[in-house]
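Action item from last week, closing it out:
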Amino acid sequence: MENPEELDDFITIDLQPRQAVIDRLSILHAFVERSMLEAVTEVDGGTSEIEERRFDLLAELLSSHAADSLIPEELEIMQMPIGQIPDDQQASVILSAEAFGILGKACGLIRELPLPPNPVGSSEELLESILAMTPEEIAEHVQLPAEEEAATMLEVAEVIHWRADVEFGARLDGGQLTEDEKESILAVGAEAERSGLATTYPSGDLRIGNKPIRKWTDDEVETFYIVSLQQRIALEWLCTAGQTWTILTEEDDD
């Protein structure tokens, strides 16, 4: 990813229309439930009731206003029987909770997300609250953020993902940061603190979560790398009217 030090001083924001955001959240909500059905099947085995719910979930989506916002890849996945989603397409299902979480927070549906490196998917309480929302409640309560607020959220997401990307690369290369990477981390941290986007630890590194990212486990770094990528992509979509939604695949993890 591009070094945040080199990003433009101003981000052009043209928010998606409110109805487009409602439709996207409705689709993601359905995918969160589909993910839960897959998880239950993996643990307890498949049942006819679970497959019937999968079928009903698809039917509900196709009969809703959100139907026209389904992209072909999503429709293909939702048409697949429970337990038959290929490995290279499972990321989009699993990450639906992360996309719903960041968009829901931006639009007033969710107050707080789990502290990094914990994903939305790690919080049973938050997942239950998401699943408890009805499409009607989502449509009623969505409030688009002000453009300045959306721009700030996007900038923070870009900086955080950049830091996760640097750390993930270091872990893949033996765990040590290069001198250039150390200098960039300090420079980005100083700029983020100066601009009010984020705070830093005494070391100068960005304060992400409740402990320095250098102290995260390799698994935590890998998980948050893809979570932060999904969050950034979701906010980029929110801030760019007319942009088509894209889903992450295993290739995006590389």
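Closing note: The CA atoms of residues 11 and 32 lie 30 Å apart.
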